[in-house]
Amino acid sequence: MKVGIIRCQQTEDICPGNTDFAVAAKGNMAFEETGPVEIMGFVSCGGCPGKRAISRAKLMVDRGAEAIVFSSCISKGNPIGYPCPHYANMRDAVIKKVGPEIKIIEWTH
Ligand code: SF4
Known about the structure:
Blueprint: E1 2-7, H1 18-26, E2 38-44, H2 52-62, E3 67-70, H3 72-75, H4 87-98, E4 103-105
Parallel strand pairs: 1-2, 1-3, 3-4
Bound molecules: iron/sulfur cluster.
Iron/sulfur cluster (SF4) binds next to loops.
């Protein structure tokens, strides 16, 4: 499966995303259900309040992503314990944009 990952732009300065790549390649953590996946895109939300995530998710789907993944920096607030306050709106707008056939995964590790 090919997945496109969306991460928190506010977290880019303190995390290179290496754990996302590691768990995706091994099919661990959030990818236990899918098994190992190919990360075909790794983008940020574009900055608060995350509106750019919607068009970026659609772009990744148009280029082959079968699932959109919100990394744990967004949904769980890794690594500083500060989840995105806009997450629910961002996720719901992405789901509406990409359609029901695209799998949504709400964390990575
Ligand atoms: S909208 Fe959320 S995910 Fe995006 S930069 Fe702001 S806090 Fe991070």
